[in-house]
Amino acid sequence: MKTMYYSFTEGSISKGNGYKPANLHKWGPGVRDVYALHYIVSGKGYLKTPQATFPLKAGESFMIFPHMEVYYYPDHQDPWEYYWIEFSGPEASRLLSMISITPDHPVTEASPQNFEALFQLFKTAGAEPFERERADAGLQLLLSYYMEYYPSAQALSKKDYALSAKEFIESNYWKSSLSVLDVVDYVKIERSYLFRLFKEVNGLSVSAYLTAFRVQRACELLIHSELSVKSLAYSVGYQDPLYFSKVFKKATAYTPSEYRSVYRVL
């Protein structure tokens, strides 16, 4: 059985990918000028770097980093079968910064998630622009799973939790049903910890930030649109225009109509 190989243009972060059936193929020692992520489907093998030799088995992954000397080879008694994908560029580096794979420790433990189907997505890539874009999207999807199962310290930092909560509010503020509990459920950390963290990073509580963002958005709509107060209230998450007006005046010292009269851009 031949190794399958697929190529991508220089403009995309995906550069190529393939599948290696179980055999005694080995590579190196040598260096590559791209990242090359390998996922082991079955069997065993070894990755040797200047720092260490890493034994690997089914369900585990290893990364070849650009310009890092490596040598990898199968176990003679149980040779590995694996998929691989090559990629490069600033976007690739950004994604990898959120995964706990480094030149000093370029391997992962086996995870409950089977990545084989995600690696197989790249088989449809070809010369068409939509195929190249799809391949890059597939790579980002694949790496997002690695972020989930093998997050780096950066991906787990406290500011990222607060940022995720803030972005969730800013994307969903228009929903009248949006609650603080929805934010907690989205971020998936303990409620009191998120509240402390959010206030530390953003200077407001979660509920206060939601209200402030709704009022801010209402101000923008009052200045730049002809929406009635009723439509505007609904647009920023309030089903009761009178309650919206009360919240707005408390925050700005103006009723919505007064604010529009004073600040309207003609």
Give your account of this protein's structure.
Helices cover 43% and strands 19% of the residues. With 266 residues, the protein is an alpha+beta fold. It has 2 domains: 4-149, Regulatory protein AraC (Jelly Rolls); 157-266, Orthogonal Bundle (Arc Repressor Mutant, subunit A). Strands 1-2-9-4-7-10 form a 6-stranded antiparallel beta sheet. β1 (4-7) and β2 (14-20) form a beta hairpin. The longest helix has 21 residues, at 129-149.
Key descriptive features of the protein:
single chain; about 45% helix; Jelly Rolls; about 270 residues; four-stranded antiparallel beta sheet; AraC-type DNA-binding protein; alpha+beta; Arc Repressor Mutant, subunit A; 2 domains; six-stranded antiparallel beta sheet; 10 strands; transcription regulation; transcription
